[in-house]
Amino acid sequence: MFGRHRVALAVAAGAFAFGGAVGAYGADSRASPEQVDLTWTQMVLLLTRHTPTYSPPVASRTFAYLSVAAYEAVAAGSTDLQSLAGQLTALTPGPQRDTAKSYDEAIVLNATMSAVVKAMFANTGPTGQRAFQAQLDKLTHDTEDGVAPDVVASSEAFGAAVAAHILDWAKDDGGTEVVNMGFPYAGDYKLNPEPGHWVPTSTIVQQQTPLLPAWGKNRPFAMPADLDCKVPPGVTYSEDPSSEFYKQAKEVYDTKNNLTPEQAAIARFWADDPMLSWTPPGHWINITMQILERDHVALEKAVDTLMRVSVAEADAFIGCWQVKFIYDTIRPLTYIRKLIDPKWDTLINTPPFPEYDSGHSVSSAAAATVLTSIYGDNFAFEDDTGSKDNLAPHNFKSFWEAAQQAGISRLYGGIHFRAAIENGLAQGRCIAAYSVNLKTWK
After folding, report:
1. Which residues contact 20 (CB under 8 A, 6 or more apart)?
2. Could you say which of 42, 66, 197, 325 has the lowest number of CB atoms within 10 Å?
3. How far apart (Å, rounded) are the C-alpha atoms in residues 317 and 333?
4. How far, in Å, are 80, 279, 356, 362 from residue 420 at the CA level?
């Protein structure tokens, strides 16, 4: 699978095959700011799929910093948008434009976003580095061609200053360094030996400890650090066949064993495994981008929308990881093999971290809540995120319908109990409210 992804990056580097964003303008046309925004975001989706340290929480963090940087760059030159300084945790006022100078928005955005992407993916491989450089060269040419040198200089300098300000803000959030792909070394993490707690489900040596156990301690973006969105405990652990815990495990077992073709397709559509997909936050970023591109959304609304979705996603993973390592719940695979069927297996891969609550549910509900606040309750759309992997597009009547499908897909896949899904959806809605309430328009 990884070889195929390297080929995709090589194609991108050679042919600039970044979806519709770059393809929307011809060889004799300059790239618009909207196209720059979508193209760099698409590059992050591509690099996320290619870079080994980019698990879902890590990906959500990068999308948030990239989208905040793009938003701040645009807001600084807008009469309608205001800065997020003082609203996002620890974000101070950034660089201001010199009123005596002229700026080009496409060049500003290209300088801002490229600098953030370069810093955030410093550890990607040679093919990823070539793809990044190819895109930078292409967009630099297509934004600066025909622009006065003094405007190019002022725009590049301002974009670089915005990026430096955002990267300086990012460095102390707790998520900068990812060691050993996010897995603690064996001597640095002690598993809880009591019944009902998480145990490894993979034979891979690296995954004998859980992924990013301290991620929930990271500085959040818009939500309070102490997780105001309280999540009730999951179902009390029990091995009694009459207990609720056993019943929920039996539901997972029976559901997976009797999946309809539609349910199996749903499980695979939302699997979003790292290194095999855009990851769960990237899936929702891709949904957002499809809508922005389809509807030709203007720059200010586009950067505002991507920022709100990305901030909600990043906070969702911080909040979810707080919950996961409070309750440290056993996965269905472990429980079912011990008490119901020792030969049972899941449809999709069981992630290497505690079960409760469901990260898919929290992050999907967060994104859907933000998008619903912008577009309304009955906004129909097609999601073709899986098209590159030969997965048929899915059509939804609303964002919440998509979030609920993403949540239940984890039961179909055999990796979550119902309580984790339902409470995860509730947590995601609560977390998203902080992003929805950000004041962006003057």
Report:
1. 38, 293
2. 197
3. 23
4. 41, 19, 5, 9
Res 9: pLDDT: 47
Query: If residue 395 lies in a helix (H) or strand (E), which one and from where to where?
Result: strand 394-396
pLDDT at 227: 74
How many residues does the structure list for the chain?
442
For the chain, the domains span 2-170, 186-436
Amino acid letter for position 436: V
> Strand ranges (DSSP E) for 19-110?
none
Asked if residue 142 has a cis previous peptide bond (ω within 30° of 0), the answer is no
C-alpha torsion 326→327→328→331, nearest 10: -150
What's the topology of domain 2-170?
Answer: Vanadium-containing Chloroperoxidase; domain 2 (1.10.606)
Measure the CA–CA gap between 286 and 23, rounded to whole angstroms.
17
Which regions of the chain are under pLDDT 70?
1-28
Same topology, domains 2-170 and 186-436? Answer is yes
Q: Please give the single-letter amino acid code of residue 311.
A: V
Q: Could you tell me what percentage of the chain is helix, strand and coil, using 3-state DSSP and rounding each to the nearest 5?
A: 60, 0, 40
Please calculate the CA angle 283-173-128 and round it to the nearest 5 degrees: 45
Both tokens assigned to 427: 């947590």
For residue 326, count other CB atoms closer than 10 A to its CB: 14
- Identify the residue whose tokens are 């999540």: 231
Its sign, for the CA torsion 285, 286, 292, 298, is positive
pLDDT digits (tens, 9 = 90+) for 224-251: 988 778 899 999 999 999 999 999 999 9
- Model-wide pTM > 0.70: yes
pLDDT in tens, 343-399: 999 999 999 999 999 999 999 999 999 999 999 999 999 999 988 888 899 999 999
Dist. CA 94–CA 310, nearest whole Å:
20
